[in-house]
Amino acid sequence: MRLFLLTTLTMIAFASNSVLNRLALASGDMQADTFGTIRLVSGAAILSILVLWQKRGFAIGGWARLAAVLALLAYIFGFSAAYAELAPGFGALILFSVVQVTMFAGAVLSQDDVPRQRWLGAGLALAGLAWLLWPSGNLTFSWPHIAAMAFAGAGWGVYSLLGRGAKDPLQATAMNFLLAAPVAAVVLLAGGGIGALPVMSVAWAVLSGAVMSGLGYALWYHILPMLGATRAAVAQLTVPVIALAGGWAFLGEALSLRFAMASVLIMAGVLVSLRQR
């Protein structure tokens, strides 16, 4: 039960990032790279304070740390760039489909035990997600933004796979953010800087970085060893459902019977995947 509650809390934090990202970019006065940089700097700040307060110390780490930092940068900026254009549902479908494929591939390559019920649960959840989010009608797609979201999904999948080996989740997440934030800041300044920004857009970016990302990702690294790669991949398929509920509550997005029925299918798949053999 404790693992279920912690996983639910983490998924809510992940979904909140989608809502906060859309809120911050909705006015058009903040660019995606600015949002991503503020998000990283805010996360690095709050995590550093926690590491210092708990006297854990800082450890640079080796090549695995470099891989985690690059994966985090790929996710943060691909995610922000894609949501500047893509419809929320379609973007979420791309993101979490790629995440699931990446994490299942990582589990297979590392020879993890993937029981049949987990494949069944993953299939049910992904089918429900596709039914819920697949666009209908005559729509045109922005392929550069689709590619950005797929890039973000691969980045997040790799970041999650690397997190399974973290001995100190808080310290590992803090170092990932601390090393990624300066890189993001340099890239942003090289591109022309920030300029004037709406106060509320900055507030959404700080909230996304400090709480939903910094603390949320530390919690994610904490529970990943208990979940394993495949169960973690399936659990994340609940995020678009939660994000759409948040969009309805905070952005006025419409809900439908299709939403309710597909949500039941997704949750059924997640429960099948997470139950013991």
TrEMBL record:
InterPro entries: AA-Vitamin_Transporters, EamA_dom, EmrE-like. The keyword Membrane applies. One of its GO terms (cellular component) is membrane. It is found in: Membrane. It is a multi-pass membrane protein. The keyword Oxidoreductase does not apply. Pfam families: EamA. Keywords: Membrane, Transmembrane, Transmembrane helix. Residues 147-274 form the EamA domain. It comes from the Bacteria. The chain crosses the membrane at residues 36-53, 65-84, 90-110, 119-137, 143-162, 174-196, 202-220, 232-251, 257-274. This is Carboxylate/amino acid/amine transporter. It comes from Shimia thalassica.
